[in-house]
Structures are given as C-alpha cells and as structure tokens.
Amino acid sequence: xxxxxxxxxxxxxxxxxxxxxxxxxxxxxxxxxxxxxxxxxxxxxxxxxxxxxxxxxxxxxxxxxxxxxxxxxxxxxxxxxxxxxxxxxxxxxxxxxxxxxxxxxxxxxxxxxxxxxxxxxxxxxxxxxxxxxxxxxxxxxxxxxxxxxxxxxxxxxxxxxxxxxxxxxxxxxxxxxxxxxxxxxxxxxxxxxxxxxxxxxxxxxxxxxxxxxxxxxxxxxxxxxxxxxxxxxxxxxxxxxxxxxxxxxxxxxxxxxxxxxxxxxxxxxxxxxxxxxxxxxxxxxxxxxxxxxxxxxxxxxxxxxxxxxxxxxxxxxxxxxxxxxxxxxxxxxxxxxxxxxxxxxxxxxxxxxxxxxxxxxxxxxxxxxxxxxxxxxxxxxxxxxxxxxxxxxxxxxxxxxxxxxxxxxxxxxxxxxxxxxxxxxxxxxxxxxxxxxxxxxxxxxxxxxxxxxxxxxxxxxxxxxxxxxxxxxxxxxxxxxxxxxxxxxxxxxxxxxxxxxxxxxxxxxxxxxxxxxxxxxxxxxxxxxxxxxxxxxxxxxxxxxxxxxxxxxxxxxxxxxxxxxxxxxxxxxxxxxxxxxxxxxxxxxxxxxxxxxxxxxxxxxxxxxxxxxxxxxxxxxxxxxxxxxxxxxxxxxxxxxxxxxxxxxxxxxxxxxxxxxxxxxxxxxxxxxxxxxxxxxxxxxxxxxxxxxxxxxxxxxxxxxxxxxxxxxxxxxxxxxxxxxxxxxxxxxxxxxxxxxxxxxxxxxxxxxxxxxxxxxxxxxxxxxxxxxxxxxxxxxxxxxxxxxxxxxxxxxxxxxxxxxxxxxxxxxxxxxxxxxxxxxxxxxxxxxxxxxxxxxxxxxxxxxxxxxxxxxxxxxxxxxxxxxxxxxxxxxxxxxxxxxxxxxxxxxxxxxxxxxxxxxxxxxxxxxxxxxxxxxxxxxxxxxxxxxxxxxxxxxxxxxxxxxxx
Length: 951
Prior knowledge:
By secondary structure, the chain is an alpha/beta fold.
C-alpha cells in the first residue's frame, strides 16, 4: 500500500483519480492547489506526488520547484498529470524541473497504473533521476511557463466550447462506467439540504430508479444499512461533516429480500469561494463480488494451507529449473527424519540416495519433468541417518508466484510393503481359520452361493461342493426365503439393515433347523456381495421355548395365587358377616314361638345364611384353604354312583355316555369334593348345550412327563395319574376365554344364570388334592375338561370322627371373648351368657391383656379370633399363657382350621371353631374345651398330690 498525494483543483478529476488508485489498495490524500499540497508534503511526506499544472494559488510547476529544491523532499517521485500543457516544450520544462513522468490527460486507467508501477519500481531500485541540487535557472524556466500561460489560456478558451459540447457525451460515458463498476454517485447541497443520487444507487438497493425521493433519512427509515453497522455509519457521517475531512468506509446493506451486500462509500465536503461548506459529494460502490472473491480466496488459501500442513503424505515444492526445494510440509520432513528448515533451500536430490551423477536434479525429478509428469514412480528416499525407505512419488508442474515449480507428493510404502507381507501370511491363517470355524461361513452374490466352509456339513449335511453355485433360497424354509433374499439384495445395494437375525433352513434330510445369520456387505471379485456367518441355534431356540413356557407357568401360578389370596380374604370377611346373621337369627328363633309371624321370616334369614356358607366354602376351595379328608378313591365307582343323579340334572335333549376304563388305578382325594368337581363340570357342560348335544364322561390311566407339563405352562411332577374327562358338543371356547375360566366370578353365561364359581371351585379342589385340570377347546368344536389325580401310593387310614357332645349349659365359668368384629363379638357374648357363662370381651390382643391384668378372678377359657389388628390371636395366647398358664384356648376364624392345625397355631380340631358357626356349635365347642380343662386340671392335681406323697 503506497502513500500518494493527488494535487488537483478540479473536483471530479481529483475524485476519479482517487477512486482509481484506491481500488488498487493505495492510501490517498488530496489537495486542491500547490500551496495546500506543499504544506501537506512538508508535514507528512508522501511516497509519490501526482499533480496537475494549471491550478489557482500555486501551479504545478511552482510546486515541483519547491519540492525539488528541498533536500528532504527532492527524492519523492513527482508525476505531472495535465490536460492543458501538452506541447513538447511543456514536457521539456516539466522534466527539467525534476519530474519523474509527464502524463497527458485523459489516459486509460490501466495505462496510468502501469506508469505509476514503473515509477515506483525505478524509485525502489534507485534508478529514478533526481536533481542533486536546486536548478540555477529555475526562474528562467518559470518565466518560460508564465510566457506560455497566455497561449494556453487562449487555447483553453477555444476548447471550452468543444468540451461543453462533449460534456453530455462524457456524462453518458461516466454513467455507463459507473454501471459497469457498480458505482453510484450522490451530491448533498448543504445550503438547501437536498440530496441527489444516480440511478446506480437505486440499482444497488434493488429498487426501480426514482422509486422514492433520495434522502439520508430515507435510508435510515428503510433500515437498508445492516443493524450491526448502522450506528457506525451514522457516526462516520457526522464525524466527517464535523471535521470537514474526507470519509472512506465500508459497510453492509441488508435488503428487503434478505440479500446481504457490501458497499464502499467515499465522500468529501466542497467549499465555496468564501471558504464555507457548500456541498458534499460522494460515491457508493457495490463491492460484494470483490469481498466474496477475497473471502473465497482467503478461505481457499487457508484450505490449501491446512491440506498442505495436515496431509499424511509428504509434499515438496521445488524449482523446476534448479531443483531447489522452495517449501515442504512436516510429513515430508518426518519421512526423511529431517527438519523442514534443513530441506528448504537445498537441492531436492538431498531426498534421494546418492547416484552416479551427483547433480541437483535426481533421475526421478528429471523423469517427472519430461515423460512421467503426473504419473506415479516408485523410488527410494534416504533419511538423515542413511536409512532407505521405499516411496511412490506423483509430481506435476505448477505455476507458483510466476515461477515454474514441480510439486511432488511422497507416499511411504514401508507400511504397505509390511502390510502386503502380513497379508500374504494372514491369508494362509485366514484360510485355516475359515475352514475350521465353528460357524458356517458363506459368501453370497446375487442370490447364489459363491463360497462355503466345511462347517456346512455339520449344519445342513451338504458338502460345500454340493451347494456352491446354487441359489441359497433352495435351502431356506419357504416361509423365510423371501425375507432372507430381500435383505441380501438390499444389503448388496448398500442399504443399512439389521446384520443379525434368525431364520429356518432345511437340511439334507428334510429337517427344519433354526440358524442365526450375521451378514455384512463386501466385494467379491470386484462386485458387491455379502459375507454371512451362520450359527446353529437349535439348542438356544429350545432353551428359549422352555424358558418362555416356565415363565408362562410362573405368571399363571402367580396370577391364580393372587386371586386365591383375594378369594380367601373375601371368604374370611364374609364368614364373619354370616356368623353374625346366622347366630342372631338362631337366638331370635329360640325366643320366638312357631306361631309368631316373625318366626318364618327369621327362619328364612337363617336359611339364607346357611346358603351363604356354601358360597364361602367354594371360595375357600378355590383358595385351597378348605379342610379336606382324602381317602383312597375309585373314580369309576364314584362316576357310577352319581349316574342317576347326573341324569336327573340333564335335559332330555342331552345324551349322557360314560366310558370307564377297566383296571383304573386308585386315586387319593376327598370323595365329597370330587363329587362336587364332577357335578360342576357336568352342569357347565349341560349349560354349554342349550340346544342339546352329547355329554361324555371318560376315565383312563395316563403317564404325564415333563414335556407335557411344559406344553400346558404348568409346573408339575411327572408320573402316573388317573384321568377323568368331561366332554361336550357345545360351541367351544377361544384362547382368550380359556385363559380366564378358572377366575372366580368369571362367567360366559347370561346375567343371573351363574355365579362364576363353579370352575374356580374345581381348580381349587384339584390343586389342594395335588391334581390338575386343563381345558381343551376350539370355537365350534366343543370342549373337553380333563382332570388328573395322582395315582394312590400310600393308603391313608380313615380319619376318626370326633364325637360331638351336647351343648350343655355352663356352670358360671369365666370366658374371655376377643374379636375385632363388634357384631360378631356381641353375638358370641350374648350366646355364652345365655348358656350360663360369665363373659368378658375385648376388641384386640392389646385390649385383652389389659382385661386379664385387671380381672382378679380365674379366667377358664380364652375364645379369640386368629387375625386381628394391633395384636393377633397367636401372639395373644403366647403372652396370656405367661400370665395364666392353666387357661384353655379356643381359636375361631373365617379361614379353615386345617391351615391352623398344619401351622401349629391350634393343637387339635377341638381347639378351633370355624366361622360361620351357630350359637349351638359355639356352645358345644366351649363345653368340650371346658370338659378338657377339668380333665387336665384333675390330672394335674393328681400328679401334684402324688409328688407330695413321694416327698
């Protein structure tokens, strides 16, 4: 960037010359006459002075004289640029004064710039003529100028008319030039505050010429100036006007359509004859293309530099004639184990091992300069320590800053050579590994098998030779062949798909097997193919199936167990209610005469309570908490005994058949419960055939193995079982219905036609008996319910029936009743008091302990519920016996006594009363416990007396 002073009194000429030089990056200052210029030169000397000759105050010849006679300034190149003094005498005068060039206006811009470059180069080289001392005949030369001034003025006047005539043409050319250079000019009259600008400014703003009146405020309100630049532009305008200094700035425009433009604006203030600012003239040039080009060039240069520096291959730039390395990247320096500074400036032959001709240009370099340009040559390079490395070089001639340069790219072949050798060795190992792999390795191309290893014999039974060249879908299960072939073709086209998935194949013997494929896309002999690894997963599939079956068994067992717990809880709470209803009804009946109008109503309440006990027993049976009395059972005999009863249950349009297997094994079950099972299954089958049909009862001996239990998703013990099947020819059931038939209260019958407890009772009875029940049904094909009971092994002894004693009245014994259900508690208290007992009451264990501690007399019997809040019956008994060891205990609960006998809570059946109970049953149980108390106490007293006698 050169500091240039332009001295020109004509504003337009001065402006155009300034724009021309500024476009090339020069720094420009201007003056309007010789005197102003001389002051500027002395204050801040420029590098070049370009001056007109004819100017007011001080002309150009005088300015040149003053500059050249100053020792500190005479070295500055001085160029005359005139349109008035064009004679040879004028040129001689200018050159005599020490001018560097004499240029006549108008001169083409490129020509003028070329002249300026010549002057600058001569000045830099020191060959530009400069006067060594002030000229002695300067005054004479100036007089020569003064004598000719009149002539020039006359000539100027003569030309004014011609220039005036051509002015319009010049303005038109100026307009065209501005359009070509994307330069618009504007002028602001400071006296009238009016603004005018050329059509080019409208075009820069992408507006139609004269679309609106030009004004500074218009630009601001249009928000054309980019928001980030707007403040700076306003500040620059104000600062320039305030200081009366030229302004040159670049900023951005943001047009209405979102287009971003870069513009350069230059303006300066002009003054009138009195020195007052008259107007401001300026130009706006669209420099978007230049800025984009500059930005693109900078980015391209940066990318080239990054690629050059970060390239993995070595890059060398060498002079095509001398072979001297001009530049190289770090990769090349690392390749030959040298510093970059060590390579740059040395002949490129330093890179190669010594040859017969010790020249700056290696043979490889010469080849690339001639017939091998652009081709790859394999050769060697040498490191600083003398190590030889194999490389390949590709070189091209390029132009670099006006100099022919050979650009070479060096690629180290050491790793490739090692890799090739390793590849040769690994191929043998690979072949060995593939042939002995634990999976089938297959290459497939266009749906055909191209390669197979020997493992295929183990999986499919075929040898590789029998399959290679054949379509692989021929050996895939028909239901899976389409998806496998489709994925194969998509993978060959490069589509992303799941690599691992299972499918079925058909082996040589026609058996179906499961395999899992892991497929990837590869090239095989130059064309797309797939590499496939096939693993035999039959064992895994079987394990998964077994796991799913076991999980289904577990889920079903958990589900039924949860429902059973719920059913047992409902039965327990219902028993409490039934005990209160039935007990109070029985007490009321005892006080009523049969001819009392309320007697019949109260008796119906009692009967309804008894019917409710049947419902609770069914719920308890499902929850497997009903007391059972298993015996050795002959199912054939049981079915025959029930034949008449069953036929009475059926309608005339239903045919009953029995197919009883001779030699049927004995089973162990509660006969009464099995009668209930058969009855429920027959009634269900009957209700499934409202239009009539055939009902069959069948018995058989059978062996159930582990796979049979797995197929039914049930955990069971394999072994011998006695089977009872009840089949109907009704409409059958779907899978969703069969999954729920054993749930309590689930029924497919119409509302009011059933309770939904029949099959749930069957399920609970068989589970409690160690047996199973499975439905077999399809829509439209009837239903078969198969019952399995374990074959009898050990014949249990018949249980001794407890002899019931009469419910005799009490003799004033004290009974403590502990029950959290207040209605039930009141019933028990009322019943026992009527029977002649003294009764204490408590709502839970903690309250009972307080009653016992506060009662001083003897408490003969503790009648307590088992499950209560805050403290249950078992814990209460343990703590009471610490206080009163001789107290008798009688438990009561809505749950069956068998569970408490098994858990050890109750010592015997006489220690437990089952809810719901009648007042008579409660009194009988209490009386039995009281009799036992007297016997145990008498025995204890006798034993104590014997011990005293022995002492």
